[in-house]
Amino acid sequence: MSKISVIVITLNEGASLCRTVDNLLSTLPASAELIVVDDGSTDQSTAFLAEEYQRVILLQPAVRLGVPQARNFGAARATGDVLVFSDAHVLTPLGWVEELLPLLDSPGIGAVAPAISSMRPAAVECTGFGQKWSDASLSVGWLGQQSSTPYPVPLLCGCFLAMRRDVFTHVGGFDGGMVLWGAEDCELSIRLWTSGYECWVVPQVEVQHTFRAHFPYEVKWEPVLHNRFRMACLHFGPRRLLRVVERLKQYDEFAAASVRLLTGDLGARTIQVRVTRKYDDDWFFNRFKSDLRSELSDLCSSQSVSVSAPHAPAVSACLVSWKRPQNLPIIVQALRRVDCIDEILIWNNDPAVKLEFTDSKTRVIESNENQSCYGRFLCAAEARNPVVYVQDDDALNLDIGGLCDQFLRDPSRISYALAPSHWHQRNRRTYGEAQAALVGWGAFFRKEWLSVLDELPPALRQSFLFRREADVFFSLLLERKHNAVQGQISHLDGHSTPGVALWCEPSAKSWTCLAIRQVLQRLRVKRNPGMPTAWNVVIPCRNYGHYLRETVESVLMSDADYEIHIVDDASIDETPEVASALARQYPHVHHLRNDEQHGPGYSRNRGIAALDSTYVVLLDADDRIGPDYLYTAGKRLARGADVVNPDAVLFGANQDRWVVPELTTLKMLLQRNSVHCCSAFRRDLWARAGGIDESMPCWMDYEFWIRLAASGARIEGLHGDHFFHRRHADSLSNFASTIKDDLRAYLHQKHAALFGA
How far is Cα 732 from Cα 681, in angstroms, rounded to an integer? Predict the structure, then answer.
């Protein structure tokens, strides 16, 4: 493998820099070079490097350079054949070098980047797979996952990307005329593409990045506008540049940004770029006709490469009406202007409301009761055309024709529109391995695909969960990725929320999670009837009934195939009533009660033995898990980990975070326990190890991890907000601290051979 130089740019990053450096050193090969460019820090955050880190080269320019010039400064002093540019607030996974960098062996690939996810909790979980421009102001938005294997994208995020040195030198590095921060990664990406090099994203590598609300240094808007304007001048033709100017001049700082641009080296730089490039901006926008669709697209000259869509078939438009019948005339009028729409069907979910349309091509179908979202599929079943378009009554889709073109380019997938608010907050549900399409704002699909719903039992199709979440059942049962586009959506009267209810409102998220769980279970049985349930979440409980519902509901927010087993260890509080109520409410929650108190080790073993699952999580009844834990840990376990050990986020009596090592070895465990009780593991390891030691009143998980590590189990750390550990006076961990000497003596006696080695 070529020598790697990682260049980290830092400015007042505080503790984040140390965490990033430690993480990179633990995931890089020993031969790699790590360079930190301190671009004027005043918080002493780089002092530790000079004292303790011999492998790290610290560079401190005499003046502040800004991000693009600081990266060039570090690259000029690097010795590697491969240059990796990294922010100072990222976490990289083990194996990223082996997954990411081999793509650079292809001469035509100029730069590669991983998927980027948020390191901190956000309103909506989001992972970006490359970027695009959202509008003519050149603001960027994340792209969703299009494949499970590497593929080209229009723009790469500069927070973590890699290039061969020869390519970096050939294209001239980052644009040194850009100032401070902003758009330097987008400019490099389009310059690579138009110079004949491709930019690729590697979706199987996920680097966590801190997206901050407040910067540890001053960030002004004028330099950002300057950089965007400069990029447009360097790379766009007259019509596209005019669009950008029309948008940017709306900002007060645009005049100052223009003066800065015109007094710089723009003329000379433009000549350099235009002389050496192979393609123009029209070629670039046509290369990514779908991803770059915005007010900047469709401006290509007649000589540009174009992609023609097949002739549009006749389409049946199917609307669902319930709370907002007053919006239907507006929507129907818009549909009548779309050439491909042949008929309009309206499913009336409210029998008390009379709908009348004089148009002979518009037909109302009366429902005897409210079928909720399922109504759109019942309506589509009445369509006379093989292709249907479905939409709710609370939004006006202003680009149905464009969405139809998207469907015709790939008629094997659902094509659906997202409002801008959802587009910027989309997550794995719309771009992950199992995609759920939000079809309410407009979607095209083939009528024949409705047959997947016939596989469901009639009782399920009559349930509230199915009616409410029919979109989830339909799109996931299809088992295919879907095409989402940023639609031109206008919310109409009576719209329930300003645009993010489906993903952010807790009760709505809970219903969606329960639906996803049901579908994943059915897909598992369909693919392999003998395959066990993926997850068994075992919750031992002794007199923690007042915490139990909160704990169980944290699991219910998971998108996974799981069952929950509450093992009540002869509690004398309200635990039996709470557990029984949860079991009645949720068929996949099971209540097991011990006749007499046996201790947490016995309860854990009993819960694990109750289900032949693939993976297990042991969750104490006063703790919680995050909504992404089962999903993320499952990916790690599927890739070869035996135990996945999450960071612990402390709450309750005190707040803190216990960050786990990237890898935990037997030697480390014999010194101290750094594997949390809520770690996920393979059930077959539990069976081979002989279960959990039931004689220990505490630390039985610690003893279990020692046995697993001694047998060769790989214990990987998982960073993020996945495990929430409650701190309170009555916790088992507090009791353990009072008898820790006895517990340690027991471990040394039981594993004398290990501790004596």
Answer: 22
Phi and psi at 592, nearest 5°, equal -115, 130
CA triplet 617, 620, 625: central angle to 5 degrees? 60
- Tokens 């199915």 belong to 466
From 680, 670, 608, select the one nearest 638 (Cα to Cα).
680
Predicted confidence (pLDDT) at residue 257 exceeds the cutoff of 50: yes
- Three-state DSSP string of 267-328: HHHHHHHHHHCCCCHHHHHHHCCCCCCCCCCCCCCCCCCCCCCCCCCCEEEEEEECCCHHHH
Strand 362-366 relative to strand 341-348: parallel, antiparallel, unpaired? parallel
For residue 302, pLDDT over 70 is answered with no
Check residue 464 and give left, alpha or beta (phi > 0: left; psi -120 to 50: alpha).
alpha
Q: Strands 663-664 and 90-91: what pairing?
A: unpaired
Amino acid identity at 283 = W
- Tell me how far apart the alpha carbons of residues 174 and 169 are, in angstroms, rounded to a whole number: 10
Q: How far apart are CA 71 and CA 187, in angstroms?
A: 14
Rounded CA separation 482/410 (Å): 9
Distances, alpha carbon 280 to alpha carbons 191, 236, 473, 753, in Å: 10, 8, 44, 69
The sign of the CA dihedral 197, 203, 205, 207 is: positive
List the beta strands (DSSP E) in 349-425.
362-366, 387-391, 395-397, 415-418
Q: What pLDDT score was predicted for residue 503?
A: 37
Beta bridge partners of 113: 201
d(CA 575, CA 583): 12
Q: Are 630 and 535 in contact (CB under 8 A)?
A: yes
Give residue 440's identity as a one-letter amino acid code. Answer: G
What phi and psi values does residue 539 have, to the nearest 5 degrees? -120, 95
Over the stretch 472-527, which tens digit does the pLDDT of each residue have?
999 999 888 788 888 878 777 655 544 334 434 456 678 888 999 999 999 899 88
Chain centroid, CA 441 distance in Å? 22
Residue 466: HSE in the Cβ half-sphere, 13 Å Cα cutoff: 16
Strands 4-10 and 131-133: unpaired
For residue 430, what are its two tokens? 């719309």
CA 174 to chain centre: 28
Beta-carbon contacts of residue 738 (< 8 Å; ≥ 6 apart) = none
- Eight-state DSSP code of residue 205: E
Nearest-angstrom CA–CA distance, 117 and 138: 21
CA 391 – CA 403 distance, rounded (Å): 12
Chain centre distance of CA 536: 24
Q: Which two structure tokens, joined as six digits, stand for 699?
A: 């630390």
Q: What is the rounded distance in angstroms from the CA atom of residue 718 to the CA atom of residue 565?
A: 24
Close Cβ partners of 688 (under 8 Å, ≥ 6 residues apart): 711
Q: How many CA atoms, within 13 angstroms, populate the side-chain half-sphere of residue 714? A: 11
Statement: residue 732 has pLDDT above 70:
no
Burial class from Cβ neighbours inside 10 Å (0-12, 13-18, 19+) for residue 327 reads: buried
Between CA 629 and CA 436 the distance in angstroms is 19
Mind listing the pLDDT tens digit for each residue in 53-79? 888 999 999 888 889 999 999 999 999
> Sign of the C-alpha dihedral, residues 209, 212, 216, 218?
positive
Q: What is the distance between the alpha carbons of residues 301 and 304, in angstroms, rounded to a whole number?
A: 5
Q: Is the pLDDT of residue 336 over 50?
A: yes
